Amino acid sequence: MDGRRGRNPLRARGGAATTNRAGARHGPRALRDASTMIRAQHGVTGLRPFETVNVADLGDVPPNPTNLQDSMDRITGFYGKVLAEGIRPLTAGGDHLSSLPILRAVAKDGPLGFLQFDSHTDLNDAYFGGEKYTHGTPFRRAVEEGLIDPKRMVQIGIRGTAGDFEDRDFAEAAGIRIITIEEFFARGIADVMAEAREILGQQPAYLSYDIDFVDPAFAPGTGTPEVGGPTSFQALQVVRELAGVRLAGADLVEVSPPFDAGSATAWLGASLLYEILCVMAAG
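RESULT FIELD:
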């Protein structure tokens, strides 16, 4: 899902999913290419996930180049088939709206806990011209649709300028826990992630990792970068602190190769996908 006029595979009614720098539609290909550098064994735990569980690349979901809603329906249908085979999905996006149709499949039997690493809440009600489906609105829709239990939802790393606090007001009213980047650094990773695990509890949860959670010095290839974020090592650490969490699925989104000098962001994204895979394999 991307927002370049005339080339976006997910456009509808003149709107677009991406509202800043276009290019996230190329993210899956770049992440797949970077993943060829991943070795079999985790460097800290010694886990060999490709031997622990069956892992397969199931390919891309073919979008409808002219219709956003149909593209989302296609994504939901694809993941419905994946889940029917007993497969837990780990997805390479795409912009953040792609998480919504995935959640529609993964959470079809009831709301999930939800953990989001991001610099933005993506809880806005609408964007320019009243657009309800953009990369800044997916989790507002997911809460409204009963896909996410807001009392078991935590967002970590939120920062940057804002037009207003409408999204945060919604979060407070719904019971969503927002941990800003200031609180994240003041408390430290271990303490913050202990709270996150407590909020998620023992029931299934979904993880969505926006690469713009990471400081653009380490991950420049993204559409809406925000300065003042974690390092690449801290980006890995937060995932390693998820040991024991029951992940029903996960995604990593918003890698934008046109802005990714030297493919550094794609390599970090592929490394994070491997870390998430290890958490899922161990659980």
